[in-house]
Amino acid sequence: MDQIIVQILNGLDKGSAYALIALGLTLIFGTLGVVNFAHGALFMMGAFCAVILSRILSASYKVVDESQTDFLGNPLQVDVFYVQRWFGDAAGATIMDWAVPLAILFSIPVMIGIGFAMERGLIKHFYKRPHADQILVTFGLAIVLQEIIKYFFGANPIQTPAPDAFKGSLDFGVWLGYEANAIMYPYWRLVYFFFSALIIAGVFAFLQFTTFGMVVRAGMADRETVGLLGIDIDKRFTFMFGLAAAVAGVAGVMYAPIVAPNYHMGMDFLVLSFVVVVVGGMGSLPGAVAAGFLLGILESFASMPAVVDVLPGINQIIIYLVAIVILLTRPRGLMGRKGVMED
Amino acid sequence: MTDQTNPSVTTATPTARPRAASGGMLGLTKKDSTLMLIVFALVMLAPFILNPFPEGSAMAQFNAGYPDLMQRFVIFGIFAIGFNILFGLTGYLSFGHAAFLGVGSYAAIWSMKLVTLNVIPGIVMAIVIAGAFTLVVGFISLRRSGIYFSILTLAFAQMSYALAYSVLTPITGGETGLQIKNTDSPLFGGPTDGSIGRANLFGAEMGNSYELAVGSWLFTFNLGYYIAGVALLVAFYLSIRIFRSPFGIMLRAVKSNQQRMNYTGLTPKRYTLSAFVISGMYAGLAGGLMVAMDTQVGPERMFWTASGEVVIMTILGGAGTLMGPILGAGFIKYMENIVSKINKDILHEWFAFLPDGAEDVMVSIVYPFIGKGWHLTLGILFMLVVIFLPGGLVEGGQRIANKFRRNKTDG
User: Fold this and answer.
1) Tell me: the pLDDT tens digits for B57-109?
2) Rounded CA gap, B264 and B259, in Å?
3) Residue A278: its chain B contacts at CB < 8 A?
4) CA-CA distances (angstroms) from residue A326 to A312, B183, B269?
5) What are the pLDDT digits (tens) for A86-103?
6) Angle, nearest 10°, between helix axes B67-90 and B246-256?
7) Nearest to B373 by CA among B381, A42, A294, A84
8) Up-side HSE of residue B233: CA atoms within 13 Å toward CB?
């Protein structure tokens, strides 16, 4: 039993990342009808927002400290961090420590801006072209984006630690009556899960309970009629693209402490996210979220030693296997709407 | 050069016999014969054409006429020609073609390890096994079309990669892959002195080269390259015949309107599956040739980025055109192997004629796009082609040629 709980917990954080990326992909597909292969690159750029902010916050200058000397007796040069000089030592250290959570605030405007630029500059011209063209051009864009990141940050992963307060693990088993250390769960992964749940709830609430969201949903159902009612639906859809980019971005920011960001992390996630989207059903937001968590948890179950002993290698292929079965038996995915991309 | 420019294709009816009867060399029209001859000349004379700069000169680093790279040009050319038969004609975008190449490679190396070091059985095995594997994958994947087909092929390829990497280690060698070792004892004609066997063609080793020095130029004629080159010529010839055949017209019909095909009482799946298997066999041929050249294989050959590469090659060169895939493959492999080696010092030499400040500025502008950053240039070029030139570099060339022609008639 405790093994099963461990696997569910392990599946949750990966599932949250899948769900967030798949949610953004589906938002773009549902509103603009564009298959965005550059979405993984947006996730990656989000993670690099965390890297950039933590570098900005730890910017420093050198001063000569007369009180300390090196072994030759010369005064030592000491790094002084700007944030510590401005906010005091303790507050400055805390700010640097909390770079990743702060990067969320930093990444949202940045990612919305990138999303706007992408939609207006490139995607806009591809609404009327076949899906294959959309896949290809966004695939090209993904290569360009990741090469730009590689040029500035190099090819090696960059460690971006979580704040000290979230280091260590939660002894989850004790709560359920198991002995200590039976079920350990790192705090940050817990944070990641709750954070994604919050974002997902926020997006759904935004679409469900605001006038803006209502218009967007109407536009998703029948774009032409909404246009005829005198509503500039294009502008709202552009905003939705920015929102989807921001969702991918914050998912990336929060993932940075779990896997050190490198330039091709987006591509690694993209392939799986697409599988998630088609399993959930093209254009279905609840489907994308459900399939994200489902596949994340399935993947971690498949990597249990008991399962791997019986079916060696199953942990490597389970997601693809599920995708193939679902695509062949349920053409619309788990929760696909009728009439959306049925070919 | 493209199919659209050949009026006889549009007038031919699907029921017509193959136009072998219409005369010309090997059943090709005059125009196609010319194209075939051009490719023949390019392949045969590649050691000269690709080595235009004398040894030891500053430009010698742009020489691409060494066997290793020439082999890669033709092998990836074959791979892309095969991909183009599927994507260029039917419009089905497969994101898993590298898996078929990988399966072909594994088949070829096992043939060499167990049966004989002669490359011919290995290559035949590669084609057959890859074809069979493609048939299975295609039979399942082709139940869907559009993006679902892309995802299905991608899923199959990633599964093959993951399995080759982990569980199938006894067959695939896992992470380290497979090489020919001195412990291998093939049934026919293995080395008897305990040395590592070499791939050969009836005793002539693939690595055999004849070097011709003319003045300060050095040209290398490599047996392995010419074997791959002949394979490319056969592959290209078959691709022309497929493009011009009633079967090819059917494949285009799949791309333009499948529903209409259904209503006419034709089953598109028969045609798409045939095209899929043919392109898988091309991939197998390419995989087998790769093994024939370097006698090793690893699972990374099947990773999905390798599938993405052949997509980029085909589209960059011109999907649906005959020459496009070869050009695209050559272009990318040239960038990967030659352009990627340009470093900052070389750039400084190039821009040395500029005043000092301007030189540094130029170098820092150009540097991100070449050398190690060649992927960036490739990504940008690829995007530009998808946006502005659906027919790829071939269409670009034709547009320029047309402009010149028009200017001539105007003047």
Assistant:
1) 777 788 888 888 999 999 999 999 999 999 999 989 998 999 999 999 999 99
2) 9
3) 147-148, 151
4) 22, 45, 21
5) 877 777 888 888 888 888
6) 60
7) B381
8) 17
Portion 249-308 of B in contact with A at CB < 8 A? 304-305, 308
Complete DSSP assignment for B264-294: TT--HHHHHHHHHHHHHHHHHHHHHHHHHHH
Tell me whether B171 touches chain A (CB under 8 Å).
no
Nearest to B312 by CA among B300, B326, B299, B329: B329
Interface test with chain B among A148, A152, A278, by most B beta carbons within 10 Å: A278
Q: Report d(CA B35, CA B28) in Å as an integer.
A: 10
What whole-number distance in Å separates Cα of residue B89 and Cα of residue B252?
A: 5
> Using a CB-CB distance cutoff of 8 angstroms, which residues of chain A are in contact with residue B312?
140
> Which of B220, B184, B261 lies closest to B47, judged by CA?
B220
A148: nearest CA partner in chain B = B376
CB contact B382 to A (< 8 Å): yes
Terminal C-alpha separation, chain B: 25
Fold category of B30-303 in CATH: ABC transporter involved in vitamin B12 uptake, BtuC (1.10.3470)
Domains in chain A, start-ordered, CATH in brackets?
Answer: 2-60+82-329 (1.10.3470)
CA distance A82 to chain B (A): 30
ipTM: 0.84
Q: Which residues pair with A81 in a beta bridge?
A: A60
Q: Name chain A contacts of B93, Cβ cutoff 8 Å.
A: 132, 135-136
In order of A48, A81, A93, A161, B112, the CA distances from A55 in angstroms are 10, 11, 14, 12, 54
Using CA atoms, how far apart are residues A338 and A332, in angstroms rounded to an integer? Answer: 7
Tens-digit pLDDT profile for residues A159-217: 888 887 777 777 776 777 777 677 777 888 888 889 999 999 999 999 889 999 899 88
A336/A326 Cα distance (integer angstroms): 12
- Sorted by where each begins, the domain ranges of chain B are 30-303
pLDDT, one tens digit per residue, over A31-90 is 888 888 899 999 999 999 999 998 888 888 877 777 777 777 777 777 788 877 787 777
The position carrying tokens 């991100």 is B368
The residue of chain A with its CA nearest to that of B142 is A328
